[in-house]
Prior knowledge:
Blueprint: E1 5-11, E2 19-24, E3 32-41, H1 44-51, H2 54-59, E4 64-65, E5 69-78, E6 80-82, E7 85-86, E8 97-100, E9 103-104, H3 110-113, E10 124-125, E11 137-141, E12 145-147, H4 154-157, H5 160-173, E13 179-183, H6 187-198, E14 203-207, H7 211-220, E15 224-226, E16 237-242, H8 247-256, E17 257-265, H9 277-282, E18 287-290, H10 298-308, E19 318-323, H11 327-336, E20 341-345
Parallel strand pairs: 13-14, 13-16, 14-15, 16-17, 17-18, 19-20
Antiparallel strand pairs: 1-2, 1-4, 3-5, 3-11, 3-20, 5-8, 6-7, 8-12, 9-10
Helix pairs in contact: 5-6, 5-10, 6-7
Amino acid sequence: MTKQSMLAVVKANAAPGVELQTIPVPKPKAGELLVKVKAASICGTDISIYDWTPWAEGHIKPPIVIGHEVVGEVIEINPSVGSGQAVYAEDIKIGDLVSSETHIFCGSCYQCRIGNRHICENMELFGIGRNGGFAEYETIPIRTSCKNDRSVSIEWMSTQEPLGNAVHVVTKANVAGKRVVVFGLGPTGLCAVAAAKAFGAREVIGINRGEYRRKLGKSMGCDATYDELPKTLVNQCDVVLEMSGNKECFTQALEAVRIAGTMIAFGIPKAEVSLNVGKYLINKEMTIASVFGRRIWEPWYQVSDLLKSKKVNLGKIITHEFKLKEFEKAMEIMKSGKCGKILLRP
């Protein structure tokens, strides 16, 4: 029988920090699953929430359980949605291991109707706009639940969400046969390195200030890494992936891309970024695009294929593991930058 209470990481107040609280185990509403969490991983977004940045202020309404990169076992299914209708989980059954798509779409707005459910106009974000997975149990909508292949390890299942982001970035950039530069070798940037290699990039170069993550970049497939953009790479890169959200890196990324090249912006800057439109966008006749999360569901299937085929080894970026009750210690290491992906176990 399910416990009545559970441990959870709660953003309790509109201020820096979080609290470990004992709260009631949630009950699945109509169209939801109740999941017993097996593993979760910390994202850069969780740091922003912890630090209470302006972005977090605009997206979080405390109190809320945070965490969106998670895998858990289905222990209850509530398919009913009322009015005589039902939402079925298709092949999802009790005992299955599932992850949640972070972008919980409405299914009826303009963007959803034209196939852009990942940028739904009425989107609710898992672990941001509703309770998430840094807990012993969680509820997730059936419509945004992804059944995991059991041939993939639970550790990798909990870390596949950032790989999905990276796959969306890389496929949008069309990297095959090209020189690719990745700015920011955090976990999603590291996944972008591996994905670029898997999708046929001729050369992948990583830019990151910290030596620790430059070494991880090499292990994930970087042909070379640097602490900043070398002069030899200015205007010489076919594809530039800005994964850091660092204001200075954004400018360096524009310097790196060659004439008629492509830049994809993924990292979210903490402050406004100004740029010389004439010098970069006009004179270079470059293509600049952005990515917000993953399309639903193409990258999830691509990620599953990459992991099952061992073309991407997420084990190389999982560097630390903690109990959920040790969240503060895990966050301290995460903020130091001397880590890859950090796992949490209930």
